[in-house]
Each structure stands twice: as C-alpha cells, then as structure tokens.
Write a structure and sequence with these properties.
Order of helices and strands: EHEHEHEHEHHEHHHE
Mean pLDDT: 95
Number of domains: 1
Largest sheet: 7 strands, parallel
CATH topology: Rossmann fold
Oligomer: single chain
Number of strands: 7
Number of helices: 9
CATH class: Alpha Beta
CATH superfamily: NAD(P)-binding Rossmann-like Domain
Radius of gyration: 17 Å
CATH architecture: 3-Layer(aba) Sandwich
Helix content: 40-55%
Strand order of the largest sheet: 3-2-1-4-5-6-7
Distance between the termini: 38 Å
Shape: globular
C-alpha cells in the first residue's frame, strides 16, 4: 500500500512544475488527486502524465468563484479532503520604482488572497487530522533585488502557516510550509525575458547553491509527500526548506 492509499488530495497549480511532480507522486502513493490550473490544455496534458486517480478542474485561485467550483467538484464525487497542497502562485521581477498597482494586485491576488481563500473554503471538506501544505519561497527572507512584491507575498504565507496551525489544532489539522529554493521548472525559467537571460540567471543561482545545482521538481514533491503523510505526524507550523542549502549556509 502507498503512503496515501485511499486518501483525497488537492494540488492547486498542479499542471506543471512542483505541482505536477507532486500530483504524480501523490497518485503513485494511492491518493485520488484533484489538480487545478488556468489553462485547459496544460491540465489535459498533466492528467495524461498522472494517469488514473486524478481529476482536473480549471481554476484561477485569485477568483473566489473558481475556488468554489473546485470544492463543488470534490463534493460531487462524495469525497472529503485529507491533503491540501496550496501550491498555486507566481510572480515577476520589478524594482521598487517600477512596481505598479497591477503588478501588486496580481501577485497578492494569487499568492496571498488565493492562498487564504483556497484554505478557508476547504475547511468544511477537510477531514480532522488532515495535512495542509502551503508553498512558500526562499525569496521571503533573502531580500533578492527586484523581487520585493513577490517576497512580501511569500512572507505572508509563512505567517499564515503559523497562525492557521494554531487555529486548526483543535481539529488536529497540521499546517506546514514547503519552501523551495531554485527548482528547475518552467515557472523559474519564465522569470527571464529570453533563453539567454534564463541561462545566465540559472548559472548565477547555481553558483550560490551549496549543493552546486538546481533542484528537481521530484525533490520538492518528495518533501511534500513527507509533509502530507504520517511520517510528519508530529510536525505543524513548520517550514521545510528544499533549497540545496541556499538559505541555510
């Protein structure tokens, strides 16, 4: 039997990168996985990769109506939620003088508003003893240039996990933050303007990482599985860094 045999898991942003790798891992461990994403073609491709034991719901986490539709789909299958991996997020570079209201609203709409209501609206379906995993970022504490809005949004997520772990302790629901460092994903590469800039950015990042390489999505997925399952049953309100030592040394 797999570590999540018979359980139901939600992975927002599950159509690529860390989210897709985690959805695949959860499914292999026996869970029925609901994945979300904004692009139907990407969701269809992700479902083909995951195979049996998955449902895709097109959803933008910054849209509260879309979040309601996600949980309606879960309820329609007669399911309750054992693992919620609130992973959907995004950001882009902008120095202080170039930050616009649109940039701010977009980043906080997905990373903060979307995160909060993804978890809040799941509460009626969450089983007691469920695991909630929030995706943070090493950027929250690194002070990376031109990344202030994104970093602030991810710092809010760390605060959420502490408070929610306290608020939900009566139901034995654990809330933890998975903190990826530089992971080789389309989202990471997409921060650059073109392929040449992406290569330069990756080379710089690798030079800063003690382990000397970018992380792989499956390595973040393995950490998410740990937080999802019984092996982490006495861990809540914590951060688990998957960053090759970047923010640790």
């Amino acid at each position: 039997m797999g570590q999540l045999e018979g359980k139901t898991a939600i992975v927002t942003g599950g159509n690529s990168g860390i989210g897709l790798a985690t959805a695949k891992r959860f499914a292999r461990e026996g869970a029925h996985v609901f994945i979300t994403g904004r692009r139907q073609e990407a969701l269809d491709a992700a479902l083909a990769e995951i195979g049996q034991g998955a449902t895709a719901v097109r959803s933008d986490v910054s849209d509260l109506g879309d979040i309601d539709r996600l949980y309606a789909a879960v309820a329609e299958q007669g399911r309750r939620i054992d693992v919620l991996f609130a992973n959907a997020g995004g950001g882009e570079f902008a120095t202080l003088e170039k930050v616009t209201e649109e940039h701010f609203d977009s980043t906080f709409g997905i990373n903060v508003k979307g995160m909060l209501f993804t978890v809040q609206k799941a509460l009626p379906l969450l089983n007691d003893g469920a695991s909630v995993i929030l995706t943070g970022s090493t950027a929250a504490t690194s002070g990376a240039e031109a990344f202030s809005v994104y970093a602030a949004s991810k710092a809010a997520i760390r605060s959420f996990s502490r408070t929610w772990a306290n608020e939900l302790k009566g139901r034995k629901i654990r809330v933890n933050t998975l903190v990826p460092g530089p992971i080789d994903t389309p989202g990471n590469s997409g921060l650059a303007a073109d392929a040449e800039e992406a290569a330069k950015m990756q080379a710089f990042l690798v030079s800063q990482i003690p382990l000397g390489r970018m992380g792989r999505p499956d390595e973040a997925a393995a950490a998410a599985l740990f937080l999802a399952g019984d092996q982490s049953s006495f861990i809540t309100g914590a951060e688990l860094f998957v960053d090759g030592g970047l923010n640790q040394i």
